[in-house]
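ok trying this again, last paste got cut off
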Amino acid sequence: MKFDTPAGTTPIDRLAVVGRAHPRVEGPLKTTGTARYAAEHHDAAPDAAYGYILGAAIAKGRITAIDTAAARAAPGVRAVVTHENAGPVGVGKFYVQRVLAGPMVDHYHQAVAVVVADTFEQARAAAALVRVDCARAKGQFDLVVQKPSAPIAAQEPFGGASEVSVGAFAAAFADAPVTVDETYAVPDQAHAMMEPHATIARWDGDRLTCWTAIQSMDWGCRDLGLIIGTPRDKIRLHSAFIGGGFGGKGTTQSDLALAAIAARVTGRPVKVVLQRTIMFNNTIHRPRTIQRVRLGAAKDGRLLAIGHDCWSGNLPGGRTEPCTLPTRLMYAGENRLLRRYLATLDLAEGNAMRAPGEAPGMMALEVAMDELAEKLGMDPVALRIVNDTQVDPEKPERRFSTRPFIQCLTEGAEKFGWGARQVKPGSRRDGKWLIGMGMASAIRGAPIMKAGARVRLGKDGHVTVETDMTDIGQGSYTIVAQTAAEMMGVPLDRVTARLGDSTFPVTPGSGGQAGAASATAGVYAACAKLRALVAQRLGFNTADVTFADGQVVSAGRSVPLADAARDGDIVAEDAMEYGGLASRYAQQTVGAHFAEVAVDAYTGIVRVRRMLAICAAGRILNPMTARSQVVGGMTMGIGAALMEEMAVDTRFGFFVNHDLAGYEVPVHADVPHLDAHFIEEVDATMSPIKAKGVGELGLSGVAPAIANAVYNATGVRVRDYPVTLEKHLDGLPEIA
């Protein structure tokens, strides 16, 4: 099905199932422990051996010798796989880091060996017997040191242009009556998902089947094939349930590739589960950024000049963290200069983490806007309203498809009680606590991509949907089933969704806030074809037929849907493809975040008291699962604002706090009541579903809202995330 004109009325508009709050259809499986994750498919490979990855102890250099004799002689050991016996090992298309070191070592904890044994304990014990001799080389590990020599990045496949210049920024900034010119830093961050990277790999002749945790089946097959030298049509991946990803399981990483290689070397299935302590330096992460934001404004708050420079580092061939992405579309302003610089660093690869670009970019831009509001003597909400735009600032002829940004701001301010905010920082107290409020805008792209589905109507009237879409906890099973139920006019419990199998029709998977909109549009296309087949089978006019309450109705005649499949199942497969609407319209999600914090006047410790998110993301397919997505993003934003930081040892080149004891993330005690509301809107330019994604919008803007609230509470501006107590303790107001 081709979608190239804005949607009119569609069967989804009935909203009998779609748009309603439904608990997750797979919820009982998860709450009873019967949903099987990657490492739990014991029946698929009952004779699986266990692979244990040994990581490099240096960050850069060369392996001069590997002695595996003692390990190979250890009890239960079946093989020790290194670059000497693994065969050719390539690189995928999305990640640039190599999954197996040898002879060169590119970063700390890059795999140098996989020890395969009958039990996990045997493999782990034998790994300690492998002797690896290395010649250490000088590496680059400090972004601050590399920043002055970092060039503007080359054009990249993701994240938009590396350099944008519109109007005359330098002159406009120099002439602006009010200016802000500040530098902000966001540290390296880890995905730290609950389920570790895990794979069971099994070869049957020249065909490979893997049960793994991966967000994109399509990319996973492609990249695994490139890495291990196997045609992708001989690879099958299963990822029915994934215990969190946040972009960290986007495509093939070391667990998947090395399990497949180890299984090929040993001739038996192999299970590899990355130990938590190796995940931080072995897999990808969100890279550190240093951002300079320059804003020039008229005295009425109108932005006259917007400058945003961002520095990040990566392995050779890697990409930037595209922090200038949100700045391109967030506010009006005729004079703009946005640049991304890329240094070479010998740390683990920096790559996609929830809301890449927008999340860290807004952590700088939105604090700068708060600083500008203070200099102007203007309310931060009012400043943002003044600078709203309904057109792409770089291409004024390109309008936003929808952008109720001002509505998000005004409704949020009213619901949150923004009027009670004290303008003077440090002036509101509650006992020993300094109280402050802060807010920030939110924006995240609304990409939508070709996606397919297969739909089957059984003899009993039950509908089964198959698509390679994945569920990383965001509710894919539920919204896929809701879409099919709406289209076929049946209750939700008459639909079964089957996901996460690479033999199913292709979708972009879970990532980039594209999954929900894309996958459900693919289901729509397949169901539209199935509706036509059903109508034909029943002798109805396909142009005048209604599916509702398990009945097919046309011209006063009503027939049970199941009757169409009386003589056999009816199967339809299709994909939704797109024309040029995304170039004609700026398709984005927008919102506003509000936060209230309390800062202990004695210790400087910060506690978030309450938060509110107002989101505009097209049609909300399921308010219950959508709210969970936003609340999850808000929780992640608390971590980014107040605690998350991978500390780099710049002498030896590794992340020191590489476990969940040292890398702090929010726990229950850190998270207060979080409130999320959605603006009622549809976006007819997206698809016949008229929906957008929302999961990454829930994170974008949260951290700066909290940082601004901390400033309002204390009067101390912290521009170096996370906002930890030692950064403002000395500047706190005197205790009366």
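PB: full thing came through this time. The chain has a mean pLDDT of 97.
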